[in-house]
Every structure is written in C-alpha cells, then in structure tokens.
Amino acid sequence: MVDAVKGSGARRGYRSAQRAEQAAATRREVLAAARALFTTNGYRATTIGDIAGGAGVAVDTVYAAVGRKPVILRELVETAISGTDRAVPPEEREYVVAVRRAVRAHEKLRLYGQAISAVQQRLGPIFLALRDAGVDDPACAEVWSTIAARRAANMRVLAGELRSTGELRDDLTDEAVADVLWSMNAAEYWDLLVRQRGWSPDEFGRWLGDAWARLLLR
C-alpha cells in the first residue's frame, strides 16, 4: 500500500512537471511571436489574434500564458534585459556582478560597455517599439517611463561605484556621471550607431567603454 501511494505521488509530480514545462514552452512561443510582430509590423498594428496565430495557439491561451498586449510588451523588455525567460533583478544579473567585482573604473566601464552591446542586440528593437507604442497608449507610456526611471536609478548606483575607485573626474557630480551613462546606454544610441550606421556590436561595445573612460575618468 505504501509503495502504491509513493508511485501515485511520483506520477502526479511527473505530470505536474510536464504541465509546467508545457506552459513555459507556450509562453516562450507567445513571446517570440509577439516580438517578431511588434518589431516588424509595429505595436499598434499587431492584434492579440495575430500573436495567437504566430504562436499557433488560441487567443485565450495568449491571455492565460502572458496577458494583454502591454503586459506582453513589458515581458519582452524584461526578458531581453535579463537574457533569460524571466525578469532578473539588476543585482542578480551576471554582468552587474562582474562590473561590481572589478576593482578599477576602466575595467568596470569596459565590462559594462560589452554588456550593454549584448543586451541591446536583444532589447533595442523591442524597446524602440515600446517607445513608439507609448505615443498613444497610456499603458505603454507608463511602462516606458518606469523603465527609463529605473535605468536612471541604476546608473546613479554605478556612478557611486565608480566614485569609490577614486578615478572619476572631480569636476563631475555623480548625477552628471549617471546622466552620461544613462544617455549612452539607451536603445536610441545603439540604434543610431549599429542599425543606422552599420557598426558591429563589438565595435559598439568597445566604443562605449572607451568613450565613457575618456569622458568620465581622470
């Protein structure tokens, strides 16, 4: 009897794990379809029905797996930043850990430039779609503003870390340093140089690290 109970529990656990994996796979399909449509056709022109068709699922499944269009767009932004299937807090991201472990300011900026180049290859197109959607969609405008403010706050933290190395220029406040970092790590800056001017991602990453060092350090 005990063995039978154990076996029954094992089967339930297996089925539960299967369902969880199926749900995760469906979520990935929905997000992939939405990303392709948002960045190709635009946010406004894309319907939930389009996303469902692209993912090969029912409309109700799109809502159940992710949510409404603004929620889908935010999830795309968060997963693009983290490079995983879920949002990851800044302090837990691999590149943030690497930057914090670096001792010299030059090394911190070099690592951060490389990281931003990698992130923007995933994030740039979808973040620009979010910006454009925010023109006439209040929910998207709120997401845009929230993430922009979060980026600025994170850059103030990085400015403080750079200040602690003793290598920052004395004539720049931490707020000014944060603003320079914030403006140059933006999707718009990546779009100008990589997409419009044809820089390679590696060139862009090296440029960021070198430009920040020349602008901000002694």
Automatic annotation (TrEMBL):
Residues 47-66 bind DNA. Pfam families: TetR_N (PF00440). It comes from the Bacteria. Signal peptide: none annotated. Residues 24-84 form the HTH tetR-type domain. InterPro entries: Homeodomain-like_sf (IPR009057), HTH-type_TetR-like_transc_reg (IPR050109), HTH_TetR (IPR001647), Tet_transcr_reg_TetR-rel_C_sf (IPR036271). Coiled coil: none annotated. Keywords: DNA-binding, Transcription, Transcription regulation. This is TetR/AcrR family transcriptional regulator.
